[in-house]
């Protein structure tokens, strides 16, 4: 696989170099030589990075991830550039074939064509470089700034049965922290501070503390343990919290990883709800908080259905308002609404808004909408509400473009 990958990278680079050479041929010699030198130096470093990632055991998993990400962004941009290079090659091929046919019937002088001030090849090569620069710049910008552009999104939800003592209660929500994707602790502290400045009465964490394994969370406990609220911090697990996204040496090692996950929530000071419920009580009134393990749609080894509402729900029947924490929003239509019509509010995450979106006034678009019916924000069906948090961290691509990381503040009011 390594040999094939190296060959593919070199072929892409050779084709890309064609555009670089054509676009820079009229430049000053120093600029031209520097550009070409930097290009091939980057190519050589990319090849060695691939060899290192595939063949060498890198103990620093985060370094491995970043090498893969940089290579992916770089070569995605180059492949987009190649579209224009191939168009130019096809154009030149047609011209050569046309000239060859004409030379058989006409004198060569009659078929000579003058090149414009900027030749078509040079124009297409420059266009190719611009086209390749757009994703390279955009994806880099999404990592350097978009990943930490934390926003507090506020909602007011009116519930007819909300007890008077809870009228105006502020619910804070954070979801999909994915500590394995985090890399700027100063910015992350700032994100946590944004939520704490809102002084929520209770905070809910709706799953995916990590991306691959629990040890990712160790360095970030001092940051996320700062999430505190007068009525407590409650949490549930997400699909990434079970260690299903890597191979384990033994079943015991995987089991130990999940035990460490339970311990991490405890260390953070979060009350982890594993198919169970709690009550918030104040002024003689109470609310029911239900929490289930991950309940997902898709391959069971990636999106397990460990969530059991039949265990979490009993005992909450008489509570005037019920709030459910369930990581995956597909749970809402699949089971919650059809079978538990008196769960007033469900809080979810999971989608990340695909970390990509376009926001123009009231119009919002994201590729997430083609997979998830409910993918970001507030939804209502009858007297039931679902809020889908866009996530705090990232998965795969460690950045965000037009889909800023979110901290949610929901105020419940009596209708």
Automatic annotation (TrEMBL):
Residues in Calcineurin-like phosphoesterase domain copies:
172-354
Q: Name one GO molecular function term.
A: metal ion binding
Supply the SUPFAM superfamilies for this chain. Answer: Metallo-dependent phosphatases
Any stretches that span the bilayer, and where are they?
38-59, 66-87
Name the Pfam families on file.
Metallophos (PF00149)
Listed InterPro entries: Calcineurin-like_PHP, Metallo-depent_PP-like, Metallophosphoesterase_sf
> What Gene3D superfamilies does the annotation carry?
3.60.21.10
- GO CC entries: membrane
Q: Name one GO biological process term.
A: lipid A biosynthetic process
Keyword vocabulary terms for this entry: Hydrolase, Membrane, Metal-binding, Transmembrane, Transmembrane helix
Q: Which PANTHER family match?
A: PHOSPHODIESTERASE YAEI, TRANSMEMBRANE PROTEIN WITH METALLOPHOSPHOESTERASE DOMAIN-RELATED
This protein's name: Metallophosphoesterase
Species, as recorded:
Chryseolinea soli
């Amino acid at each position: 696989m390594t040999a094939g990958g190296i060959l593919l990278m070199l072929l892409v680079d050779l084709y890309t170099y064609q555009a670089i050479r054509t676009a820079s041929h009229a430049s000053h010699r120093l600029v031209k030589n520097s550009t070409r030198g930097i290009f091939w130096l980057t190519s050589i470093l990319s090849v060695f990075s691939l060899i290192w990632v595939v063949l060498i055991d890198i103990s620093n998993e985060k370094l491995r991830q970043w090498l893969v990400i940089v290579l992916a962004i770089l070569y995605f941009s180059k492949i987009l550039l190649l579209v224009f290079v191939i168009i130019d090659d096809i154009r030149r091929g047609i011209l050569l074939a046309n000239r060859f046919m004409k030379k058989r019937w006409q004198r060569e002088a009659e078929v000579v064509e003058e090149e414009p001030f900027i030749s078509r090849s040079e124009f297409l090569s420059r266009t190719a470089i611009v086209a390749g620069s757009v994703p390279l710049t955009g994806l880099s910008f999404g990592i350097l700034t978009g990943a930490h552009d934390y926003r507090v999104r506020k909602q007011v939800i009116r519930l007819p049965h909300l007890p008077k003592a809870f009228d105006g209660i502020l619910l804070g929500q954070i979801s999909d922290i994915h500590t394995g994707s985090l890399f700027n602790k100063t910015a992350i502290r700032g994100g946590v501070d944004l939520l704490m400045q809102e002084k929520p009465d209770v905070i809910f964490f709706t799953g995916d503390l990590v991306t691959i394994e629990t040890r990712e969370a160790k360095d970030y406990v001092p940051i996320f343990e700062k999430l505190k609220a007068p009525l407590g911090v409650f949490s549930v697990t997400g699909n990434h919290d079970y260690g299903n996204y890597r191979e384990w040496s033994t079943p015991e090692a995987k089991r130990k990883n999940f035990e460490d996950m339970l311990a991490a929530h405890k260390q953070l000071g979060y009350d982890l709800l594993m198919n169970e419920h709690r009550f918030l009580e104040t002024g003689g009134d109470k609310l029911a908080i239900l929490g289930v393990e991950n309940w997902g749609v898709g391959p069971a080894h990636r999106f397990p259905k460990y969530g059991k509402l039949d265990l979490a729900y009993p005992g909450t029947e008489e509570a005037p308002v019920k709030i459910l924490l369930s990581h995956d929003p597909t749970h809402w239509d699949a089971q919650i609404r059809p079978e538990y019509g008196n769960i007033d509010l469900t809080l979810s995450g999971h989608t990340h808004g695909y970390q990509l979106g376009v926001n123009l006034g009231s119009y919002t678009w994201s590729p997430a909408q083609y997979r998830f019916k409910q993918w970001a924000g507030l939804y209502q069906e009858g007297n039931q509400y679902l809020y889908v948090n866009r996530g705090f961290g990232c998965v795969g691509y460690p950045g965000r473009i037009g889909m800023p990381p979110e901290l949610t503040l929901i105020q419940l009011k009596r209708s």
